[in-house]
């Protein structure tokens, strides 16, 4: 079912409550160290400004545990947002988030004005999805716009509950995430390849299951590859291994075969003495992993094999780094895959917090079709789970 977006509703001059995901990393001094999430909210805010809406922004920041805590105040975000927008964003200093003072201030807003409310999680009712709190929030405005894709997998008062009380639509960010990832999953141009990596199989079981029904090729790298290699009878030394998932890896492998999905595992890997950058390492074939070494990256032969598959694909979804990319000696596999995606003419979608960070860090971000802003949310979306923050929105007739 298609959901309504801000383009499907009249917002001119109305008080619009917008749930954003301004959960950005900050340093000790409160400086924002990565503002991607704030920047990705700009299209929706600009559209609302153009339509002379009275814009009330909501977000959470960190985990203040349901109590006011200055350390988690959204005030720095209001300042940064003002700079990015080139117009003033007022900050509503309010430990209760929606006290009478805030209600009065919102009532007196002028058209085109923007105010950012205090951290939703200063109220414990937020994560409890308390209907009374949702109702209280909803009383501030006339329309609810959800643009917090990164929080859409949580049913909280300001992401889902509030939609019970107001006409509710998606903003541009959620719309874009649903459009691009949704159409890749439902109607991909083929060949369709998924690349999965990261530390653990257990984090990605749902994703593998769902994607096995959709892709032509499934590439597995990263730490989770070792559980698959073990399932195929290879010894993996000290590599990360989930003993209790070996059987599952076996059955996923069989499932891929039954569904005619080409499943690719590393042919060679980079093995190291210790889990740190400054250590001895070398490249070995998958059947020659020494018992005292650990695999921390894919090898050069594997890079070539994965790269070839990538360049033949028309739709690619990538989730999870190919190795311990945080250490430069073991970042080569991840970097080579990012480069191959950047060179490909396919629709390229990056999901997952660490994969997105790797692609940004390595300078390939602007070469991708789409980098999802939601870590957990994009994973659940790839698993085929309906996101509560999306489900709560009004259906298109
Ligand atoms: P994403 O956030 O993109 O979904 P994950 O969180 O699942 O990715 O996985 C990222 C982590 O996986 C990184 O911290 C990386 O160091 C780790 N990782 C990748 N390959 C290995 C490996 N061979 N051994 C141990 N950890 C690995
Ligand atoms: Mg991660």
At the fourth level of CATH, the homologous superfamily of the largest domain is Phosphoglycerate kinase, N-terminal domain
| Total number of domains | 2
* Tally of individual helices: 15
What strand line-up does the widest sheet have?
3-4-2-1-5-6
Bound molecules: adenosine-5'-diphosphate, magnesium ion
CATH classification class of the largest domain: Alpha Beta
Strand content is 15-25%
Class by alpha and beta content:
alpha/beta
Please summarize the sheet with the most strands. 6 strands, parallel
Mean pLDDT: 96
Portion in helices: 25-40%
Q: Characteristics of this structure?
A:
single chain, 397 residues, alpha/beta, Rossmann fold, six-stranded parallel β-sheet, binds adenosine-5'-diphosphate, binds magnesium ion
Tell me what the structure shows.
It is a single chain. The chain has 397 residues and is an alpha/beta fold. It has two domains: 168 residues, Rossmann fold; 202 residues, 3-Layer(aba) Sandwich (Rossmann fold). The protein is 33% helix and 15% strand. It has 15 helices and 15 strands. It has a six-stranded parallel sheet. The model has no long low-confidence stretch (mean pLDDT 96). The site of adenosine-5'-diphosphate (ADP) has 20 residues, from β12 and α13.
């Amino acid at each position: 079912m298609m959901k309504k977006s801000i383009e499907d509703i009249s917002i001119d001059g109305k008080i619009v409550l917008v749930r954003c995901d301004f959960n950005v990393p900050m340093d000790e001094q409160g400086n924002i160290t990565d503002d991607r999430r704030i920047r990705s909210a700009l299209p929706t805010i600009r559209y609302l400004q153009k339509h002379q809406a009275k814009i009330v922004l909501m977000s959470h920041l960190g985990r203040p545990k349901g109590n006011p805590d200055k350390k988690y105040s959204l005030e720095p975000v209001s300042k940064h947002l003002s700079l990015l927008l080139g117009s003033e964003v007022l900050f509503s200093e309010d430990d209760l988030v929606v006290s009478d003072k805030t209600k009065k201030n919102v009532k007196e807003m002028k058209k085109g004005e923007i105010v950012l409310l205090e951290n939703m999680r200063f109220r414990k009712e937020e994560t409890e999805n308390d209907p009374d709190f949702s109702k209280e929030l909803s009383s501030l405005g006339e329309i609810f716009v959800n643009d917090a894709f990164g929080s859409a997998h949580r049913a909280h008062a300001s992401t889902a509950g509030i939609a019970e009380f107001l006409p509710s639509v998606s903003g541009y960010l959620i719309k874009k995430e649903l459009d691009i990832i949704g159409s890749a999953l439902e109607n991909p141009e083929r060949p369709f390849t998924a690349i999965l990596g990261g530390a653990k199989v257990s984090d990605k079981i749902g994703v593998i299951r769902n994607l096995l029904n959709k892709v032509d090729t499934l590439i597995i790298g990263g730490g989770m590859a070792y559980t698959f290699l073990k399932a195929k009878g290879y010894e993996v030394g000290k590599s990360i291994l989930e003993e209790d998932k070996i059987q599952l890896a076996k059955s996923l492998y069989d499932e891929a075969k039954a569904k005619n999905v080409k499943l690719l595992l590393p042919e060679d890997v980079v093995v190291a003495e210790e889990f740190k950058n400054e250590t001895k390492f070398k490249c070995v074939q998958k059947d020659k992993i020494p018992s005292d070494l650990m695999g921390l990256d894919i090898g050069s032969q594997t890079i070539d094999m994965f790269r070839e598959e990538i360049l033949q694909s028309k739709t690619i979804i990538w989730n999870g780094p190919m190795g311990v990319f945080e250490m430069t000696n073991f970042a080569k596999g991840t970097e080579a895959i990012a480069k191959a995606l950047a060179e490909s003419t396919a629709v390229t979608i990056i999901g997952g917090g660490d994969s997105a960070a790797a692609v940004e860090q390595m300078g390939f971000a602007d070469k991708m079709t789409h980098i999802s802003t939601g870590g957990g949310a994009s994973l659940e979306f790839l698993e085929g789970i309906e996101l509560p923050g999306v489900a709560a929105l009004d259906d298109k007739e």
